Amino acid sequence: MNNRMSTFLESDLFQESWTGELEEMENPYDMQGLKITYPVYYEVDLYKVEDDLELDLYLEYEVETNCSRCLIPVTEKVEDTSHFTIREGVELEEEEETDIDDIYYVEELKRFQLEDLLFSQIISSIPQKSLCKEECKGLCPQCGQDLNHGTCDCEQEESGNQFEILKELFTEK
Ligand SMILES: [Zn+2]
Ligand SMILES: [Zn+2]
Predict the structure, then answer these.
(1) For position 36, what pLDDT does the model report?
(2) pLDDT in tens, 87-103
(3) Which ligand is nearest to the CA of 137?
(4) Under 8 Å between Cβ of 1 and 16
(5) Nearest ligand for residue 129 CA
C-alpha cells in the first residue's frame, strides 16, 4: 500500500484511485476493546491540488458492539465516506478552534502514511450507538429485565432510559 502511495506522489499523475483491504496486523494504533472484523475494505481517490493532496475515502467494515438499549451483542455494518486534505506542515494553534477537521497535516507529503489515516478514520467512524433493532425496548432501568422478552412489575418512567445513559458514559473514550 505504501509503495503505491509513494509511487503516485512521486509520479506526474494528478489523480489515482485504488481499493484495498486492511488487515489487523498493519494497525499502528492500540485498538484494544474495539472488535472490528478484519479485513476492512477501503477505496481511495487521490488528487494532487496545488501543494495539497485531496483524498476521498470510502470504508466498509463490521464492528462487534452492544445494543445501546438492551446491551446484547450486535454486529454493525459500517459504510463511511469521508474527505481529507493532506497538507504539509503543522496545525496552527489558532486554527484548532475552527472547523478544519478534514485537514490532515503531515511532516512531508512524500512520507504520508495512508494506513495512519485509514485507522484514525476507522476509529472516528465507529458508531457511538447501535441498536439490535429499531424498536428495541431496552432493559428495565430498575430491575434490568430485558423488556423485549417480557415485562416486569416495576413502574416505568416515561422519560429517558437510564441504562442507555450509563452505556453511553461507559463507551466514551
Ligand atoms: Zn436491543
Ligand atoms: Zn423492572
Answers:
(1) 87
(2) 998 776 655 555 556 88
(3) 1
(4) no
(5) 1
Whether residue 42 has pLDDT greater than 80 = yes
Q: Which ligand is nearest to the CA of 73?
A: 1
What is the Cβ-side half-sphere exposure of residue 90, based on CA atoms within 13 angstroms?
Answer: 3
Residue ranges with CB less than 5 Å from ion ligand 1: 67, 69-70, 132, 136
Taking CA 124 as the corner, what is the angle to CA 122 and CA 126, rounded to the nearest 5 degrees?
Answer: 70
Average pLDDT over residues 134-138: 95
Nearest 10 degrees: Cα torsion 138, 144, 147, 152: -150
Contact present, 29 and 123 (Cβ < 8 Å): yes
Cα 151 to averaged position of ligand 2 atoms, centre (Å)? 7
In percent, the amount of the chain with pLDDT more than 70 equals 77
Ligand nearest to the CA of 67: 1
Ligand nearest to the CA of 167: 1
Distance 18 CA to ligand 2 centre (A): 52
What distance in angstroms lies between residue 146's CA and the mean position of ligand 1's atoms? Answer: 9
pLDDT value at 172 more than 60 = no
* Euclidean distance between CA atoms 54 and 96, whole angstroms: 20
Give pLDDT tens digits for 62-73: 999 899 999 999
Q: Which three cell numbers stand for residue 42?
A: 477501503
